[in-house]
Amino acid sequence: MTYCSKCGSKIENDGEFCPNCGTKVNQTSNENRNKEKIDQTFQQVKSVANKINVSEIINIFKNSVLNPVSGGKEFVTKTQKTPAIIILIMLTCLQGILGIWRVNQIINSVSIIFTNFYRNISSLAVLFGGGSPSYNVDTSTLYSINNTIDKFKYMNTIPYGKIFIGNCELYLVGFLVLFICIYLGISFFAKVKCTPFMIFKSVLISTLPIMVCEIISILFSYLSLNLGIAFVILGVLISITTLGIIIKDSFAVNANLYVLIISTAAVISLIAFILTFSYHMVDVVKTIVYKYGSLLN
Prior knowledge:
single chain; 2 domains; two-stranded antiparallel sheet
């Protein structure tokens, strides 16, 4: 569709003359304008791409993982807007991927859980009924259960899209609530002047230890569930401690007051995290359990 260069009317079907004023259409002019728009869009994308310094982002991750406090302080004082936003997007997507990984881990462990459960039930039955050793298990029943579980694993019924989006929302909600609480606490209670972007960077970089420990947690969960849970708790403690030290040193907040602000913000963020999980993820779990139950029936 083109437009008249004189009156601005729409010219349908690439007509040669304007239906309103009769002016001859300058096709070359329209093509040039379209080309200029494409070139402007390309230049804008190129400008954003040029601002992305891959080595800088890699160094930020390396320093913050190996030295959470010192690396975090450096990130808060030196990092510009574009790298910070890119890291936020990367961590959000990483949380979504970790959520899918965790669900797959649970699904792959279902057969072991069911086998152990059946063995325990059989052991209790023998214990109270007397007779054969506790591990005299009905192998045909175990085979039937494992066969059903294997069928479920290879069915494309797991809502990976919902799991990814839900976990991304979990991270963003927790991050946003933590950011708001700390910003309000520092601005109104500590009465320290600070820019929102500085608080944004402080909260952002403090979430990195949780991500790292969550990856380690998933890996160690294949060996021991308790060990995996321990690493998650460790990540939370490191992140809260890192955030507290960064806030205290970067914004010169009173020691007693920063403890109150950080602890209150952490509790509120945890509540928001749990509520968001209940709202978005319970439906996913119900879907998986329902489809899994239909296979067992």
